Description:
0% helix
Amino acid sequence: QVQLQESGGGLVQAGNSLRLSCAASPRTISTYAMGWFRQPPGKDRELVAAISWTGRPTYYVDSVKGRFTISRDNAKLTVYLQMNNLNPEDTAVYYCAAGSMVATMSTPDYWGQGTQVTVSS
Length: 121
């Protein structure tokens, strides 16, 4: 059974950075594409970033391009989301997800439980 566990969320001031981590199991997850979604209060969940199992290609939603970086360490079964220059609009619950490929990451196969990110102005 695939398990995804996010960590690294918290409260941060605008302009600062956070790094989210997603620990995955079992080892077969290393062949999955991985993604990060977010759901702001009262809004729909959106795909923020995705990465293939090889590390390329990657995908970013326009609103985070140049600020967020997705990466993965298959040896550690961990995916990261480095978030820089955060602003209050980035406030959301962030979810890790796994799917077959980046192109179909909008409908992933597995979800984590989510971690809250709050950005104060």
